[in-house]
Write a structure and sequence with these properties.
about 200 residues; mainly alpha
């Protein structure tokens, strides 16, 4: 059965695969911010629900053990009743005790087997649920890390392009009005080389 988190991760991956590449690039893509934000918001909302679901599976371990204990107690109770019946019905007390002890011994053995099997099953359920939850969280961590790196790279590229554009504009202004620009800078107490860049 596919979980809601897996379905959302599939949607995010499908959306990323459907995005167009940036011009002159085969690694950078153009992402619709609103759409990716909506997918990530839904993923954040569903993650606690899925974790609670697997925590509930783990808590079922106690229910399995409790059910096994009740069955074991029921078996021992029935064996005790049978013992009393045997003691009352038979004239020879020793034979009654032997049969009673045998019944109790078998019931105790069966009860122990039920408890052992329940413990194994409960541990298996718990380990599977924890592994599955960890796999989901690891996948989510990878997606967020990749998205963060991509955002930082895009931001740095934008700043670099703005600085380059600003340098071209200043150069063009200087070529158009070299004297006017220098006079303006001198009025401010600056040289042309002191003109600030965008940071």
């Amino acid at each position: 059965m596919t979980s809601k988190i897996e379905e959302l991760i599939d949607e995010i991956e499908a959306y990323i695969d459907s995005c167009k590449f940036q011009t002159l690039s085969n690694t950078r893509i153009i992402v619709n911010k609103d759409q990716i934000d909506e997918l990530l918001r839904e993923l954040r909302q569903k993650t606690p629900e899925e974790i609670k679901r697997y925590q509930k599976m783990i808590s079922n371990r106690d229910a399995i053990l409790e059910d096994a204990r009740k069955k074991a107690e029921d078996l021992i109770s029935k064996a005790t009743i049978k013992t009393n019946e045997l003691v009352n019905e038979h004239e020879i007390m020793q034979q009654a005790y032997d049969k009673a002890n045998n019944v109790i011994s078998m019931a105790s053995k069966e009860a122990q087997e039920i408890l052992d099997n329940a413990q194994i099953e409960a541990n298996s359920v718990r380990a599977s649920a924890m592994q599955y939850t960890d796999d989901l969280l690891a996948n989510l961590e990878n997606i967020i890390t990749h998205a963060t790196k991509e955002a930082v790279a895009n931001y740095n590229e934008l700043i670099s392009e703005l600085n380059n554009t600003n340098a071209i504009i200043k150069s063009n202004r200087t070529e158009l009005h070299p004297t006017d620009v220098e006079d303006d800078l001198e009025d401010l107490g600056l040289n042309a080389s002191d003109s600030p860049d965008i940071i």
